[in-house]
Amino acid sequence: MVKGVTPAADTAAQGATTGIDSFGATMALAKGASTIASAFFSHSIAKSNAQIRNAHAELQYWAQFKNQNKQNYRAYGDQMRSWYRSQQYVEQQKKYEQELKKQRATYKGEVSTRATKDFARKMSDLDAQFYEKEARDEIQMRNIRSQLDTNAAKKSGAAAGRVGRNVQALQQVQDQRWLLNLSNRQITKEFRLVDKMRAGEAFNAARENEVSSIQLYNPRPISDPVKPLAPIPIDGYQPTPDPGPSGLSLATAVTGAAFDAISEYRDFLPDPAED
To answer: Which listed residue, of 32, 41, 194, 203, carries a Cα 20 to 30 Å from 134's Cα?
Structure first.
């Protein structure tokens, strides 16, 4: 026993020391419990925030997906309307070109028919003129023959008392005249035939030139507009979910807080060696 210190005072001092150690230990445990509770609360808040971010990212992704898909089909609709208008215009142009071709072919046929009829009329007139001239020349030849025969008969009567040789000579002269006229007649006919053939060839050439001067119409090539393709499916990538804080981090934090609380609690316990 320490000199000057009574047993009662010693007991009171030991009680006061024990009370202080119990308060500190209790505070250490309370601090650990608060740290653990704060860790759970922080983990829950972080987890909730991660879920909110994931929901917001998912909502934003599908909103953009829907808007992009809507824009694509709106643009496709505009392209299809433009294509229908272009296609309708092209069809009208094609019909117009075919109508021009038909009209030109009809006109050329009409020109060919008219030219052929005109050619036939000219050839008919040419034949009529030819045969008219031939008939006139034939009549003229007959008149010449008749005149020669008449002259020969007169001269034969005048030379009746002469020698027969003179009569034969006279007859030969008349025959020579006839042959000369007949030869001239044949030459004239041949020239007339040649003129007729040349005139017919000229008429036919004029007919062909008139018909060939009308060219058939070749329709202009018109390309069809390219039909737009339907929008391809959007190949999107959904946002990667944020897992938030892991359970392992929470367990580590709780374990660390508990370990610190227990260690601090033990520091406030009385030392068994002092008992």
So the answer is: 203
Q: 84 to each of 96, 156, 224, 228, 229, how far by Cα in Å?
A: 18, 106, 11, 10, 13
Summarize pLDDT for 116-132 with one digit per residue, the tens: 999 999 989 988 888 88
106-145 in b/e burial notation, b at 16+ Cβ within 10 A? eebeebbeebeeebeebeeebeeebeeeeeeeeeeeeeee
Could you tell me which residues come within 8 angstroms of residue 170 by beta carbon, excluding any fewer than 6 positions away? 152, 155, 156, 159
Residue with tokens 């008749």: 146
- The answer to whether residue 234 sits within a structural domain is no
Q: What is the pTM of this model?
A: 0.50
How far is residue 243's CA from residue 239's CA, in Å, rounded to a whole number?
12
Residue 51: CB partners within 8 Å, gap ≥ 6? 244
Distances, alpha carbon 253 to alpha carbons 33, 37, 72, 131, 247, in Å: 12, 10, 51, 136, 10
- Residue 227 within a domain: no
- The whole-angstrom separation of Cα 57 and Cα 203 is 92
Q: pLDDT digit string (tens) for 15-43?
A: 444 444 566 667 766 777 777 777 777 77
pLDDT tens per residue, range 257-275 = 777 767 766 666 666 555 5
